[in-house]
Amino acid sequence: xxxxxxxxxxxxxxxxxxxxxxxxxxxxxxxxxxxxxxxxxxxxxxxxxxxxxxxxxxxxxxxxxxxxxxxxxxxxxxxxxxxxxxxxxxxxxxxxxxxxxxxxxxxxxxxxxxxxxxxxxxxxxxxxxxxxxxxxxxxxxxxxxxxxxxxxxxxxxxxxxxxxxxxxxxxxxxxxxxxxxxxxxxxxxxxxxxxxxxxxxxxxxxxxxxxxxxxxxxxxxxxxxxxxxxxxxxxxxxxxxxxxxxxxxxxxxxxxxxxxxxxxxxxxxxxxxxxxxxxxxxxxxxxxxxxxxxxxxxxxxxxxxxxxxxxxxxxxxxx
Length: 319
Fold this sequence. Notes:
Layout: E1 10-14, H1 19-30, E2 34-39, E3 56-59, H2 65-74, E4 79-82, H3 89-94, H4 96-115, E5 122-126, H5 151-170, E6 174-179, E7 181-183, H6 193-202, E8 208-209, E9 216-217, E10 219-221, H7 222-235, E11 239-243, E12 249-250, H8 251-261, E13 269-270, E14 280-281, H9 286-291, H10 300-314
Parallel strand pairs: 1-2, 1-4, 2-3, 4-5, 5-6, 6-11, 7-10, 8-13, 9-14
Antiparallel strand pairs: 9-12
Helix pairs in contact: 1-7, 2-4, 4-5, 6-8, 6-10
């Protein structure tokens, strides 16, 4: 990194109170950026609350285009990181309309506001590996079609395509990130496999696997993801980039690694109840490595060790 001097640069982060958003804000503050955050709900448990005195917070909805235009104009925003989205697959399945409203309408509202804002120099939009849907060829590369079918996946496909449309039609400076499954400290969505398993072990309860345990995914440490977003913004290169650590694992293999690292003899309960999920999904991030000179700093093993430490501190459990 280092191609941008972030000091005093006005940066707008949507989804700042979310899992990745709070880590991204932390990095931006370390780089002395002037950070403006959009927050819909007041979430005291969020990592962002550690930094509330150091950022500007605007309460409101990502769907409110007039509000977004006011923020970009009044704070003379230079760089936008768009992370606001419905982040939970099961919630998206139960509530597809609210997911489409926040993800799809939220994206076009923000990009239209950016199109009308002359100070904007860089826009990073969070897509996902889920935008690809199911593909016959693995790993997924950026030139594959986006073909989400289930609500969460469709919302990500649409976000991605809308961003590509604004980039192609209006020549806007947009970078699109497609990351593997994020994990690390600060993720308080306990139905996700990493925080849920760690919490179960801390409580001396058997961890729950909703699927049959054989599904294969990327697991991408959150601090690597935050640095990937910054690297893309600093590159001044438009387009789509996969980010992962190229270490796909099955769910059961991941759970067993957590159990081993926590020195636990607990056995997982495999419920085999997962619906609307793809069997194998992982990314080729060689494009980012080549064009952005980016590479992950954490293996799955190192990332899990840091995550376990974070959750032990969170639950105030002696190491």
